[in-house]
Write a structure and sequence with these properties.
Strand content: 25-35%
CATH architecture of the largest domain: Alpha-Beta Complex
Distance between the termini: 10 Å
Order of helices and strands: EEEHEEHEEEHHEHEHEEHEHEHEHE
Number of domains: 2
Helix content: 10-25%
Shape: globular
Number of strands: 16
CATH superfamily of the largest domain: Medium-chain alcohol dehydrogenases, catalytic domain
Bound molecules: zinc ion
Length: 355
């Protein structure tokens, strides 16, 4: 079997033959159905983000179980996996024993390992989606996926959609709230669609890219604001006297975040998701936070429960929004380098890798 190995940003991705893995107890091997290429994969490939290498990238993976160990691994709802099951799974592999796992933060397990971010050496080499087969390890939260949902719609569920589900869990009440979503990449678009489920007063999406704002309307945005990255704080369109009850940031721009937090109304929840790379510190007015009972919460990755919510959301409502169309083009694994070049040059929301 073949997998695409990334060494460093100055070398092309290498297709390498690996022995087909044999699953042990609580493990399974899945055949790749579709792996969508996340922005973080592109950041690694272009050298903006450093991962231990050699590695097999790709973590937004949909697969079909081909072999299972004995005993078979269980899904998070407790059913044993069977050959032929169509599955997605958590990007994090957690021990289930440490304090963090026991306190409900398994994504921050003290010995966490991750799909698509693992050194591709030894028995656990096959943990990335740019591969014909992936070995699912003990400690992975697995969820079965209906055969009726298109692969393009569901493949990003274990990254974008599950993270959005975690952000909404933290934001708590959405009904009759004014929601501000910063960033109209796949997470922001998904958040707009997700917000429509809860009957908010308004869903405002902001981004610097006007095409993405047009898309945001198709995902449920009731208003959009185009941000100009060159504007200073005083003239930012966000700073025009509006206020919000729920502010969800998926862009990770410190300047925009600073503007947005200043618009938090009484009892507002501000959820930071996008700041996953080193970014400048921001100023927060502590008096406003105190008098307005504002909460600011960071969210990174998600729990198994968030993943289940995300899968259910796309199974039930995925066809109401153009999720399917967000995968601009699909490439076979053999054309991985062309696929990456295409993604870097044309910047679609996602591209897909198939067998
Ligand atoms: Zn991702
Ligand atoms: Zn743990």
């Amino acid at each position: 079997m073949k997998a695409a190995v990334f060494n460093n940003s100055s070398e092309p991705i290498e297709l390498i033959e690996f022995p087909t893995p044999i699953p042990e107890a609580n493990e399974a091997v899945v055949n790749l159905e579709l792996c969508t290429v996340c922005g973080s994969d592109l950041h690694t490939i272009s050298g903006k983000r450093i991962e231990p290498t050699p590695t097999i990238l790709g973590h937004e993976i949909l697969g079909v179980v081909s072999t299972i160990g004995s005993p078979a691994p269980k899904t998070i709802s407790g059913t044993s996996l069977k050959v032929g099951d169509r599955v997605t799974w958590s990007t994090c592999i957690s021990c289930g024993e440490c304090n963090r796992c026991k306190s409900g933060l398994s994504q921050k397990c003290l010995s966490v390992e991750k799909y698509g971010h693992n050194v591709a050496i030894g028995r656990n080499a096959l943990r990335g989606g740019f591969s014909e087969k992936i070995l699912l390890s003990k400690g992975t939260s697995i969820v079965k996926v209906s055969s009726e949902v298109p692969a393009e719609t569901i493949a990003p569920v274990n990254c974008a959609t599950a993270t959005v589900a975690a952000a909404f869990r933290v934001a708590q009440e959405i009904s009759e709230k004014r929601v501000l979503i910063i960033g109209a990449g796949l997470l922001g678009l998904t958040a707009a669609a997700f917000a429509t489920m809860y009957n908010p007063t308004s869903i405002t999406v902001c981004d610097i890219n006007p095409q993405r704002l047009e898309l945001a309307k198709e995902f449920g945005a009731t208003q959009t604001i185009q941000l100009d990255p060159k504007l200073d704080d005083e003239s930012s369109p966000l700073g025009s006297g509006r206020t919000y009850d729920v502010i969800l940031d998926f862009a990770g721009s410190s300047a925009t975040l600073e503007d947005a937090i200043a618009l938090a109304d009484v009892s507002a929840k501000v959820v930071l998701v996008g700041s996953v790379m080193k970014s400048p510190p921001i100023k927060v007015d502590p008096e406003r936070m105190v008098r307005n009972w504002v909460s600011i919460h960071g969210v990174h990755n998600y729990t198994p429960g968030d993943l289940a919510v995300a899968v259910e959301f796309l199974e039930k409502h995925g066809d109401r929004f153009p999720f399917f169309a967000m995968v601009g083009k699909k490439f076979p694994l053999d054309e991985i380098q062309q696929a990456i070049d295409f993604a870097l040059q044309t910047k679609p929301i996602r591209i897909g890798i198939t067998q």
